[in-house]
Amino acid sequence: MRSMLLSASFIALFASSAIAQKARDLSAEEIYRKAAPAVVTIHVKNENEKEILVGSGFRIPDVSVKRKVAPINAAKPADRKVLAKLLEGMPKLTGDCFIVTNYHVIRGAVSAEVEPQFGGRAVVFEVVTESADLDLAVLGVTYFDSTAIPTALELSKKDPTIGSAVYAIGNPQGLRNSISQGIVSGIPEIDGRTWIQTTAPISSGSSGGPLVTTNGSAVGITTMSRRIGQNLNFAVPVSKVLHILGQPLKSRPLNEGASMTWVERDAFLWCGIRGGTALEDADKLFRSGRYREALDAAIGSQNTIPPEFEYLREFTVGKTQVQLLLREDLRESVETSWRNSQHARLASQAFERAQQLNPTFTPTLYEIGMIRTHYTQELKAGLDIANRIISLMPRCARAFLLRGQCKRLVDDPTARADLERAIDLDPLQAQAHFDYAMLMSELGEFEMAVQSYQLAQQLGYIRPICLFNIGMAYKRAGNFEKAIVAFQQVQQKGDPLGCNKMILECQRGIR
Length: 511
What we know:
By secondary structure, the protein is an alpha+beta fold. 49% of the residues lie in helices and 17% in strands. It has 21 helices and 15 strands.
């Protein structure tokens, strides 16, 4: 009996020791080794394939999603030709997984590449589910190198307690997989949403990375840092990820509703696959700047393309006529030239026919909207078209820019929100920054106007025009010294734009 009691005591002691060992907090080094291989860098691009944002994300267990990555593995037979053509010349696809990140990271994405910790290449093919309110997105990612697929990070079943130690892992300022330590300083409710507040620093580029506990599981998705105070850093609880994954999934292609360029590209791709190669060739000529040849090729393709792509032929004729007009020696304003040009008349007719044949093809609607807004000054019609494009493409930066331009010209106070939305979706749009600067100047916010003109100039907008408008903003604000400097810079560019008169007025203002 005594022997049995000793044995029982030994077993109990061994079990308690094992439990204690299992519950032991991991060191920072151990946590990094466990969690870092799950973390990736996400490079977000606009429709011009330019990088607009770098964020973080991490792989979650496939079982959490309860489905497979769809676009490649479950492609319909009709779609496989398109996929094959899109992936032509690229390495063989070898695997896929699910990545969680912040919604704001991929909000304006037209395409996105994922960079794993140990090299390799992957692309985001779909948004599996998303929540703008919770600032969460789960992405379906396909890899070109199976050895680069990150390991999955375990998701904690419960929220952390205040005072517990946590670690943030991400890619701040492009520095891959940096780790920072802190504690959970609060679980506040802000604007009706629950957040994890932490002292672990979260910098730009770390958004979407994991907030990890001392057992190496993720309890949050790092999302933002408040600049109004020290150590005000926040993460979305992992329980919210599990919540949205428990709802019916609303999957979409990453670029859906974001890029008219991709809508146009896909249309020509399908046209070529279905036998309309002559029209596809016309589009290639257009994109290489050979507009006269493109026009001849588009007109000549009329009897060679499938009938369902006649709208695309008319669209090609229309956009080519516009480019031929813009490349004429315009001695009058574009508006006056538009009224008197044969190219303008033929472009308008072609776009109208294209719209009748395919009323939802947004590139045609956009061209018509540009004509109504900027060439014929039919602002109500331009606004109606912009509204329609946004209803079809709710994440399209160019659509919000067009609507913002229309609203600014009719003094609609909501123009500001549309232009800010356009910049938010694609911060590399020089035209959006320029229009926003004009609006800020009209509203008397001259400092913001100057900053936006400078951004537009850095992004490639016409330098003398930006400098002249900067001078005008300073002049209206009463900062005559800086206004004179801006006007003199325009003069140095050999484009006076009435600068002599402006400089004299500023000199009188100084006296």
